[in-house]
Write a structure and sequence with these properties.
The chain has 623 residues and is an alpha/beta fold. Helices cover 33% and strands 19% of the residues. Helix 8 (229-241) links the parallel strand 10 and strand 11 (245-248).
């Protein structure tokens, strides 16, 4: 019997090829892990396997351009929580953090744990497992080690600036002094070497609530934030000379300074354009017009005048963030709650001592009410949509989801607060159940205000009450507009981080769902934005269905996609690899099949033996 010409033939699919052109009904043949042929009615007899994709959409495997999966990939190389949503390429080493220099441990110094714990809200017990899996100590071996593990999705990596500083200066010095010229030269050399090894570029960070988790440095920010403009300029010269990418976040405390740093993208000012991928553009609830400033800046920076190339990352759904008590990335922004979060994960007594300290209570009340009451500049700025902080403290917007009293789940804190006030005023019927009555009886009486309510909740329940807030992107039409804007790029997903606070593994599907509501032409545009466009921006040879391309393919059920709703598909479950619970996304039924290098890794709602059983993806080296 003659050998089949093709390994797999996918027939009758509506194909979105990532070019942005309208879809066509087409067959696609695969051989040796690559696209071998495309056309109408290709002969089924020439294929060893035929997949009938009637009624399905076919598109290139999607990219997730902002993840922290560098922690998970060495514990579970198949990355099934990524693949199930149609993502076949992930970028790691974001926000100045990563593992490419190895463990970097020295004495009490444990940079991976010290940096990731609070920045990405990952418990130290989980991070210690990740550190144990690290078996390399340099950027070259890091890239090479992916050849030796059963990698699922493709991996592209940034050089993380915080870890680069630690590698050259040590953790202590990286947060206490400027580098010497010799140290800066060493950083340039290591960065250039990594660029030559295929790294995507350099990642840095400027967000004010990114703190270390190691005593005595819990009041210090991560190393990248101690770099001067001069240091940034020198290091980024290495990146721009090689036409690589700078991934960064804004210095939001000083917005003028943030835009000054963003100007490093300018070819007019710095000799050659620097590709820049920056966080983040969304319609914030407390600052509804803030995104217009970022997009206006991008229009200027990318103009012929300044010759820049900056894109702001956009999220494909509402930015819903959960908090375990006060522990979430949001509350790092307030000085008082930052003190609470700095306590060790299991240090209940330490947090309780703070919560009963009169001086702390005063600081907390000041932070809680800042910009929310009184005749002052902070309140005026909040009223006009330019607040000093984006931390939501409006009980109407804080929704219980995992409450100590079941009557509270799904309710706003405001609704519970108002019942408590009626209960304390003598209305015994205000309590919905005996459990709520017992809980109300333990509150201070009279409750006074919402700050006292929150203080009591933290004293009484510590981290054992959960609630969420929608920080931004509550208007789907605006979200779609931002996703398709020429100065943005979809992908502010943070997959693999904030493991109990958010889960946007499915954000690419949410983006497609918004496009589907408009037309197939808009879907075609969105597919391009999730595949070919970011691949070209980051210099990667993925994201296409061109003949000869790696056969990373997704089959979607458009009817299931039409009914898909992110917020209804969040689950929290225990993961053996972490020995800890994690918030995850589910999109069951939407993604019918996923192939990586021509191998089916997801089919009919389950992974296949190939995922995690053999190496399919590869370490992507930027061109």
């Amino acid at each position: 019997m003659a050998e089949a010409a093709w390994d797999t033939l996918i027939t009758n699919a509506l194909v979105f090829d990532g070019t942005g052109t309208p879809p066509v009904r087409q067959d696609i043949a695969l051989r040796g892990g690559r696209i071998a042929a495309r056309g109408e009615e290709l002969p089924a007899s020439a294929a060893a396997e035929v997949v009938d994709a009637t009624g399905k959409w076919l598109l290139p495997g999607m990219l997730d351009i902002h993840t922290h999966l560098d922690l998970e990939v060495d514990l579970e190389p198949g990355l099934p929580e990524v693949v199930r949503h149609g993502t076949t390429t992930v970028l790691v080493g974001n926000c100045s953090l990563g593992t490419c220099f190895g463990r970097q441990q020295a004495g009490e110094q444990n940079p991976i744990v010290d940096c990731f714990t609070r920045v990405e809200n990952i418990p130290k017990s989980v991070l210690n497992k990740c550190v144990e899996a690290v078996q390399w100590d340099n950027t070259g071996d890091y890239m090479d080690h992916f050849d030796d593990i059963p990698l699922g999705p493709n991996i592209g990596a940034f050089v993380p600036h915080s870890m680069l500083r630690v590698e050259v200066m040590g953790l202590e010095d990286s947060i206490s002094r400027e580098p010497t010229d010799a140290e800066l030269t060493a950083m340039e050399r290591l960065l250039g070497q990594a660029m030559d090894q295929g790294y995507l570029g350099l990642s840095t960070d400027g967000l004010p609530f990114h703190y270390l988790a190691n005593t005595p440095h819990t009041d210090k920010r991560i190393p990248t934030q101690f770099a001067s403009f001069s240091e940034m300029k020198r290091l980024l010269r290495v990146v721009r000379e090689r036409d690589r990418v700078w991934q960064t976040t804004p210095i939001i405390e000083q917005r003028a300074k943030a835009f000054l740093y963003f100007l490093l993208t300018s070819g007019r000012l710095f000799g050659k354009t620097l590709k820049t991928s920056a966080l983040s553009v969304m319609e914030f609830v407390l600052m509804p017009n803030g995104h217009k400033g970022f997009l206006g800046f991008a229009a200027l920076a990318n103009s012929r005048l300044l010759k820049g190339n900056i894109h702001f990352q956009a999220l494909g759904t509402n930015f819903r963030v959960w908090s375990d008590g006060i522990v979430s990335p949001l509350f790092e922004e307030l000085e008082s709650t930052c003190e609470l979060i700095a306590k060790e994960y299991d240090d209940v007594e330490g947090r309780l001592a703070l919560l009963n300290d009169p001086q702390f209570i005063e600081r907390f009340r000041r932070d809680w009410h800042h910009g929310r009451r009184g005749r002052n500049l902070a309140h005026f700025k909040a009223k006009i949509g330019a607040p000093d902080t984006l931390v939501i403290r409006d009980f109407n917007l804080m929704i219980f989801d995992g409450a100590p009293v079941s009557d509270w789940d799904g309710q706003s804190m405001q609704a519970v607060y108002e019942r408590l006030e009626r209960f304390q005023a003598g209305d015994g019927g205000a309590a919905r159940s005996d459990a709520e009555r017992d809980a109300f009886a333990r509150f201070p009486s009279p409750i006074g205000d919402d700050a006292e309510f929150m203080l009591h909740m933290m004293r009484e329940y510590d981290k054992n009450f959960r609630f969420y807030v929608d920080v931004g992107n509550t208007n789907g039409d605006t979200v779609l507009e931002l996703l398709l804007h020429k100065h943005t790029m979809p992908g502010f997903n943070d997959s693999g981080a904030h493991i109990t606070n958010m889960a946007f593994f499915d954000a690419n599907l949410a983006s497609l769902r918004l496009a589907q509501r408009q037309s197939l032409d808009v879907v075609a545009q969105m597919v391009k934005r999730l595949t070919r466009e970011p691949a070209e921006f980051f210099g990667l040879d993925v994201g296409t269905l061109d003949i000869g391309a790696q056969a990373d393919i997704v089959l979607l059920d458009p009817d299931a996609l039409a009914g898909f709703e992110c917020n209804a598909q969040r689950v929290t479950q225990h993961r053996e690899i972490f020995d800890h619970k994690q918030m995850l996304s589910r999109s069951d039924g939407v993604v019918s099949r996923v192939l990586i290098s021509g191998e089916t890794v997801w089919r009919d709602g389950a992974t296949t033996a190939a995922l995690g059983g053999k190496r399919l993806g590869r370490a992507l080296r930027a061109a």
